[in-house]
Sequence to fold (359 residues):
Amino acid sequence: MARVVVVGAGLAGLCSALALADFGHEVTVLESGPAPGGQLTYAPQPFTLPAVLRDLFRKTGRPLERELDVVPADPAVRWVFADGVEVAVPNASPSGTRRALDDAFGPGAGAQWDAVVGHGDRSWRELRPIVLGHAGAKPPRSGGTLRDVAASLREPRLRAALESYATRFGADPATAPAALTVLPYLEQTFGVWTADLPTLVGVLAGRAAERGARFRYDVTVAGPSRDGGRVDGVRLADGTIGADAVVWTAPPGDLADERRGLFRRRRDHPAPAAAAVAAPVPAGTVRFPAGGGRAASWYDAAGDVHGAAAGRVTALFRRPANVTKTRGLYLAGAGAHPGPGIPLVALSASIVADHIGRA
Ligand SMILES: Cc1cc2nc3c(=O)[nH]c(=O)nc-3n(C[C@H](O)[C@H](O)[C@H](O)COP(=O)(O)OP(=O)(O)OC[C@H]3O[C@@H](n4cnc5c(N)ncnc54)[C@H](O)[C@@H]3O)c2cc1C
Fold:
C-alpha cells in the first residue's frame, strides 16, 4: 500500500482518488476550496464518450446508470446564427443531421458536413491510440488546421459551425489542428450526454470516501516535496505531508520548481475560483455573432482555465505527460495529457491510476 496525496478535488482529483483508493492505497485528497467539484460547478456541461466514466464506475462498484441518470442530449447541439437561422443538430444521427442541414441551408449542405465527419473518422483512427496512450503525444500525421478543413465547406455558416469546435476551448481555428474534426465525429458516433453534475461529484466523492480516501478542504498545496529524483510528499503553508506518490491535478503551470524538463508547453492558466456561475450560454447552444466573430467558449464565464488550448497547431498534443520525470509525481486533469473536457480529464485519472497500480 502506498501513501498517495491527490492535489485538487475537481473531476481529475475525484476520479484519481476513487480509482486509487479502490486499488487499496492510502489516499488523502487536499483541496484548496471548501468543497469538491472544481470546474464541474459550472453546470450543466454536455459531454461525449460516457464510456470513460462508465468504466470507472463499473470497476469500483455499482454501474454509473444505477447512481445517476445519464441522458442523451436533445439536440446534440443547437446552432443559432446571426441571421436568425437556427439548426437543432440531432444527437448521434448522421442521417438526421444530413436532413437538418439540407433543410436549413439547402440541398447538399448535409453532404458537405458528412465530409467533415468523414475527416473526423480518419482523424480518430490516428488519434485514438494517442489519446488513450499513457505518455505525452506526438501530433497526428494528417496536418493542417481546422480552418483549412472549414475552407473546404461552401456554406459559410457551416464553416463557422466547424470553427466553433476550436473556439469552445479558447483555441484559434487558424492554428488549431484539423484533427479537431474528431469532435463532430464523436458527437455523431457516440452521442452527446448530460448528467446532473452536482450528483456526479457527490457520488464520486462519497464512493472514494467509502473506499477509505480522506478529504481535506481549504488546504492549499504549495508544491511537491522531493528527495533527490523522487517525490516524498507535498508542501503546505505550515509544514509537509509525506507521500510515496503525488497526483497533481491543479494547473501544471503552478509547479514552478518542476517546470524544467517537465513541460514542452509553457503556457498554462490559473484555475477559476470554484464558485457556481452560470455557463456563458445555455449548455448545448452555440451562438454565432454577426460579422464572423468567434462563438463563445466554455471559459468566457470562468476566465482563463488551465487546459485552454494554446496557439500552435500542435499545441493540443504537447500537454505534459501524465508520468513526470520526478519519480512518484503524476499529472492528471485538464492541463495534462490528453486535455480538457469531462471524458478526457477522467481518462487522465485512469491513466495515472493504472501507472501507480494496485497496492
Ligand atoms: C464554464 C465551463 C464550461 C465547460 N463546459 C464543458 C462541457 O460542456 N463539456 C465538457 O466535457 N467539459 C466542459 N468544461 C471543461 C471541464 O469542466 C473541465 O475540463 C474539467 O472539469 C476539469 O477538471 P480538473 O479536475 O482537471 O480541473 P478543476 O476542475 O479545475 O480541478 C482542480 C481543483 O484543484 C484545486 N486546486 C488548484 N490549485 C490547488 C492547490 N495548490 N492546492 C489544492 N487544491 C488546488 C482547485 O480548487 C480545483 O478544485 C467546461 C469548463 C468550464 C469552466
Q: What stands out?
A: Residues 261-280, 306-314 have pLDDT under 50 and may be disordered. Residues 7-13, 30-33, 38-40, 42, 45-47, 220-221, 249-250, 254, 271, 274, 279, 283, 298-299, 301-302, 305, 307, 333-334, 340-342, 345 surround flavin-adenine dinucleotide (CB under 6 Å).
